[in-house]
Amino acid sequence: MPIRSMTGFAQVKGELRNADNASQQPAKRSGSPQQNGHAGFALSLKSVNHRFLDLHFRLPSGCDSLEMQLRRRLKEKIARGHVEVAVNLERANNEIIALNRPLVSAYIAAFRAASVEYSLAAVPDLNAILRMPGALESGQELEDEALESAVITRIEEALDRLNQMREQEGRSIERELRQRMAHLAEAVKTVQLYRRTVLRSYVEKLQTRLQELLGSNPDRERAMQEAALLVDRSDIQEEIVRLENHVQHFLDLLDQGGEVGKKLDFLLQEMNREANTLLSKTSGLAGEALKITEAGLVMKAEIEKSREQVQNLE
What we know:
Layout: E1 8-16, H1 19-24, H2 33-36, E2 39-48, E3 53-58, H3 64-77, E4 81-90, E5 97-99, H4 101-117, H5 126-130, E6 136-138, H6 144-214, H7 220-233, H8 237-256, H9 261-281, H10 289-310
Parallel strand pairs: 3-4
Antiparallel strand pairs: 1-2, 2-4, 5-6
C-alpha cells in the first residue's frame, strides 16, 4: 500500500427515490436530483491529521444504523486521522411542504395555556413555531431505509476518492522526506570527515592542560590514563554510526510504504537525540570543531522539518 497523507477531501452525490418511482423510472437520468424531480443527497468526507482514527458524523436524524455501517466501512479503509463524515439532503424542486397541524396546534394550545396561567400578554411567534423540528413535513417524506441504502452504495466511491487524494499528497511528502534524509546523510559525512582532526586537537589540548596542572606529580601517568578515558567518552563515532543506521532504516520504511507515520516519527525522535548528544560532546571546541557544530545544527534543522511532514502521514 502506498504512503498516504492524513489530509484529504471527497464528495459524491446521489438521488433518493421511493419504491414506486424506482420501479417506474430508469436507473440513470441526466441532470441534478432536483431537476429530475427526486430528492438527493451529498456525502462528504474530510480528513486531517490526528494521532488515532477519530470519526465524527453529521447525519440526518434517525440515521443510527447508517452511522454504524459507515463507521465500519471507514475503519476498514482508513487507519489514522480525524475524519468528518457529512450527509446533506437536497430536496427536489417539485416537493410539497405541508404543515404538521397536530404538532403546531398542540404547541399553540400550550403557549396560550401558559399565557393565561402566568398572566402574560403574548402571542405565539409563527417563525419560531415553523423552526421547530417536525413542524413542517415533506410531501415526499424520505424513509430511513432508502437513505441508508443510497448512501451505502456510494460510500466506497467516496472512500476511493478520499484515499486517492491522500495518496497523491503522500507521494509529495515522501519526495520531500527523501530529500531531507539526503541532506541529513551529507551532514553526517561532514561530521565524520572532521571527527579525527577534532579528536586529536582535543587530546593535545587536554594533555597540555594536564601537564601544566600536574608538573612533576608522581601520579602523572594515572592522570593521563584518566584523561584518555575522558577523551574516549568524548568521541562521537557511536553517534555517527547510529545516525547513519537511522537514516537507512528511515529510507527502508519509505520503500516499504503503508502505515509508517508513527514509526518514522519515532525514528526522528531517536535521530534528534543523537544529534543533541553529538553537539554536547563537541561544544566548547574551536577551529575545525566548528564545522561539526555547523553540521550538527543542519542535522537538527532537517530532522525538525522532517517531523513536521511525518506528522501528516497515516
